[in-house]
Amino acid sequence: MIILLDLDEVIADFEGAFLKTFRQRHPELPFIPLEERTTTRIPEQYPAEVIPLIEEIFTEKGFFLSFEPIPGALEAATKILEKGHQAYICTSPLHKSPRCYTEKYEWVLNHLGREWTKRLIITKDKTLVHGDILVDDRPEVKGIMQPTWEHVLYTQPYNTHVKDKRRLTWQEDWESILKI
Ligand SMILES: [Mg+2]
Fold first, then answer.
1. Ligand 1 center to 25 CA (angstroms)
2. Contact predicate 93/104, CB 8 Å
3. Domain span at residue 90?
């Protein structure tokens, strides 16, 4: 099987890194903890005047490098390959941050190693990428093509309302769920 793995919030903890920096830098401002997040885009849940402060964090040097791995994710990615499947990281860039392209590459190099950098696909349209399964935390992954992959949701608080997709976390028996 070809298994495509989203990076942010499936393998790398974007939300955690953002919240840590935001709270350190703006302790006077209210923040939204992960369990109260209801959308995939963080700025949508904050007041308009706070959005520039959020975007400043997103676009600054080193932000995409600062993410901790999601628990169990690196082990899962490695195991998929060990079981003889093809695994690729399929991630969408933040178009306002050109450096996120290189930092995503560096993150994969730092946490998964050189071989995985050859398995890194950065695209705004994941439907253009062929695969059997896409593990992604976004409730809907849309693009110009009819996808070849089945979208399996990586469960996060902001996608619990989705009922028509299979879902997993790395803390569950994901191998049975993916049937690998
Ligand atoms: Mg994601």
1. 24
2. yes
3. 2-12+69-178
- Report the catalytic residues: 6, 8
150-154, strands of its sheet edge to edge: 120-122, 86-91, 2-5, 133-136, 150-154, 167-168
- 152: CA distance to ligand 1 center in Å? 12
Residues 148 and 124 in one domain: yes
Q: Where are the alpha helices (DSSP H) in 7-166?
A: 14-25, 51-59, 73-82, 99-112, 114-117
What integer is the mean pLDDT of 153-167?
97
Q: Across residues 104-132, what is the average pLDDT? A: 98
Determine the distance separating the centroid of ligand 1 and the alpha carbon of 126, expressed in angstroms: 12
pTM of the model: 0.96
Residue ranges of E strands in the chain: 2-5, 86-91, 120-122, 133-136, 150-154, 167-168
SS3 86: strand
Task: Give residue 95's pLDDT.
Answer: 85
Instruction: Identify whether residues 78 and 125 lie together within a single domain.
Output: yes
**Domains contained in the chain, number:** 2
Please tell me the distance between residue 13's alpha carbon and the centre of ligand 1 in angstroms: 9
